[in-house]
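Run: sequence + S-adenosyl-L-homocysteine -> complex structure.
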Amino acid sequence: MFMTITTTGSAEKPATDLGFLLHKHPQKAQAFSTSHGTAHVLYPEATPERCTAALLLEVDPVALVRRGQGRGRSGAPDAALAQYVNDRPYAASSLFAVALGAVFRSALNARCTARPELPQQARPLRVEIPALPARGGPELVRRLFGPLGWSAVEVTPVPLDTRFPQWGDSRYVRLVLEGELRLADALRQLYVLLPVLDDSKHYWVAPDEVDKLLRAGDGWLAGHPEHGLITSRYLARSKRLTQDALERLELVRLAESDGSVVEELDNAATETEEEAADAAERSVPLARQRRAAIVDALRAAGAHRVLDLGCGQGQLIHDLLRDASFTEIVGVDVSVRALTIAARRLRLERMGERQSARVRLTQGSLAYTDKRLTGYDAAVLSEVIEHLDLPRLPALEYAVFGSARPGTVLVTTPNVEYNVRWETLPAGQVRHTDHRFEWTRAEFRDWAHRTAERHGYGVAFTPVGPQDPEVGPPTQMAVFTLNTVPDSGPGTESGAYGSGSAPKEGTAA
Ligand code: SAH
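>> structure
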């Protein structure tokens, strides 16, 4: 049983931080004895640019039989030999999930005393499991991991025997997950979904399993379209426990929908957090002024089919729906939680057919090209770019301007010069803890001009909010318009930015 977790980084944000996150030093190979064998943690590579941690579980089949756990999925006594000769030692399964929970306990709980901020940050992750038992087949694997915030879920069936292709596929798949997530979230998903896919829980399912499931499922399970299947399989199909868990998940959903649970969104800069203070100072909150400016610019561009990239909780979509000239509105965000809240706020489920045909919410990362985003009139990036680490920005640029290539692109971002005018903001501080950078007017213009030139767009600038004679407006907006003169197109640029767009990594060591 084997799994690797890879992350990439830079000198400022080194990939080797993975060692802090996992509480395992990258220079050491360590072994831990678990109830079913020995778990090894080692790092095949550890540089600031790229770091891979491997978890290897050596299952002891004899120990399993002694503990009465070596049997197959049915629980019926197997033929004597099958107790010793089975897939347990080789395939990632529920045993592996137990080892994961034991060896990476702090990481699962998003705890890191040395660097408390680290576990809260999403980072580029690549998880590879070469042999994952997948009862339900590759399709089910995709359905389970698809809605969880990964930008790529690659599932490849493993053939029974490469020498005899006519025998077909085994019940194992090779799973590769790629995306920008918090490590704790990735580990919690695996902790729950590996046993679900294995569907042969090796241990007696005790009532506290429901608690474990709800804890590991916090923030993603209640809203998962397959929460019923996940719950039932995780609890080894125990009717009583499943019903108990489903009732509790329903309570989570209800609590979320009547707003009695504080929504601390991982990433989303919300009106409450970021702009409520401003709202007190001004009669029209800045966020509303920004949305009005965006809607005006979209109308001026004659856009009908619009992408709201990094749509957050859907406030702009709400405004766009009020204007019938926007015939198709697609909200994209990397955060499933933000999308869940957006769907609820927009009352998508209760919307009439005509209205709901106009709007779609979809999960995706703007750091990767996405064919579904091509062919639109306009794309909006409202207060999104500053949430990306600067080194990731070229990837977003390429995904939006190089690949999706809408006729108009609107980008808004804070003007850092204006920060001295916020009474509540200490000097030198950015407006929101998740902002990775904030630009001056000159910096923003410089970036916008370079981006426009590279991808064949023209660009103009519009201030948003009250203009200050010295420091300018609080928000800056760039309106990019695709040049209609036929040029060489994006093809010539893909080489230059290819490396920054969708890093296709080779097979991990
Ligand atoms: N556009 C909204 C929300 C801005 S907050 C508004 O103007 O109010 C930034 C949003 O960008 C968050 O919802 C965050 O989840 C999303 N985001 C950050 N990085 C992203 C990425 N790489 N891909 C897609 N969305 C991303």
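>> summary
The pocket of S-adenosyl-L-homocysteine is lined by residues 180, 267-269, 310-312, 315, 333-335, 338, 365-367, 382-384, 387-388 (CB under 6 Å). Confidence is low (pLDDT under 50) at residues 69-78, 257-283, 489-509.
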